[in-house]
């Protein structure tokens, strides 16, 4: 985990779920959003869409229709977090 990023225990659990193999299918959106708000600039654009800037990367994420994020979002989150020096462990 990057030294400059201090995550609380709840956020560390979320990061561990994101990087879990095999891919976890029970990562809740509100946990992801809380994590992102602690490490990135998050702006709600409209209708459940969020612009997330983490490091030099900006993504627009759609809030899932259910509670859990989908597999593609987990893959995107892994890439963004890794790029910012955040990983499990």
Please provide a written account of the structure.
With 89 residues, the chain is α+β, with helices and mostly antiparallel strands. The protein has a single domain, classed as Metal Transport, Frataxin, Chain A. Helix content is 38%, strand content 20%. The chain contains three helices and three strands; from the N terminus they run ααβββα. A hairpin with a 2-residue loop joins strand 1 and strand 2. The mean pLDDT is 91.
Number of strands: 3
Report helical residue fraction.
25-40%
Classified by CATH, the class is Alpha Beta
SSE run: HHEEEH
Strand content: 15-25%
How many helices? The count is: 3
- Oligomer state of the chains in this structure: single chain
Question: Which descriptors apply to this entry?
Answer:
alpha+beta; globular; single chain; 89 residues
């Amino acid at each position: 985990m990057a030294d400059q990023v201090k995550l609380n225990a709840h956020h560390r659990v979320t990061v561990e779920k994101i990087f879990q193999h095999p891919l976890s299918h029970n990562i809740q959106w509100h946990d992801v959003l809380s994590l992102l708000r602690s490490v990135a600039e998050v702006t709600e654009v409209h209708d459940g869409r969020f612009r997330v800037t983490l490091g030099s990367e900006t993504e627009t994420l759609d809030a899932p229709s259910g509670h859990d994020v989908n597999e593609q979002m987990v893959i995107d989150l892994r890439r963004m977090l890794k790029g910012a020096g955040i990983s499990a462990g």
